[in-house]
Amino acid sequence: MISQSLLTQDVATQRLGFDFLLEAERDIASCNALYSKELYPHAVCHLQQAVEKATKGYMLGFNWLSAEEVKQIGHDTPKLILDALFEKTGIAFWLKQVGDEVSQININNMRQVMKTRTNGRK
């Protein structure tokens, strides 16, 4: 299933995306082992890591993210998701074309909130 999700034609980006997905699977295995030992805080930490790595892996695979963007953003997965949603999918452009002013205002507000929250973080 993992290899089928990688749609980008760039082999280096494909490999990086695949590596992120493999690491996410390892974190899930660690999460399960820790959870079974009732080490819940540590299990949650590995689960969070798995979500972050899987998100990056899929975004690389679908070519919504470059290796350089992964380095620049670091651990700010919500910013990655919102940037991809707004810019890479064309949703913001489409909403502008159909004249949905309320959605456009909401998108601009979300962008401003994310920009405010991520200023100074790398």
Give an overview of the whole structure:
This protein is an all-alpha fold and about 120 residues long. It has one domain (about 1-120). Helix content is about 80%, strand content about 0%. It has helices at about 1-5, 10-35, 40-60, 65-75, 75-90, 90-100, 100-120. It is globular and about 55 Å long.
Strand content: under 5%
Total number of distinct structural domains: 1
List the helices and strands in order.
HHHHHHH
From the spread of the alpha carbons, the general shape counts as globular
Report low-confidence residues grouped into runs of 5 or more: none
What characteristics describe this protein?
122 residues; mainly alpha; 0% strand
Topology:
Layout: H1 2-5, H2 11-36, H3 40-61, H4 67-73, H5 77-88, H6 91-98, H7 101-118
Concise description?
The chain has 122 residues and is mainly α. The protein contains seven helices and no strands. Helix 3 runs parallel beside helix 5 and helix 5 (77-88) runs antiparallel to helix 7.
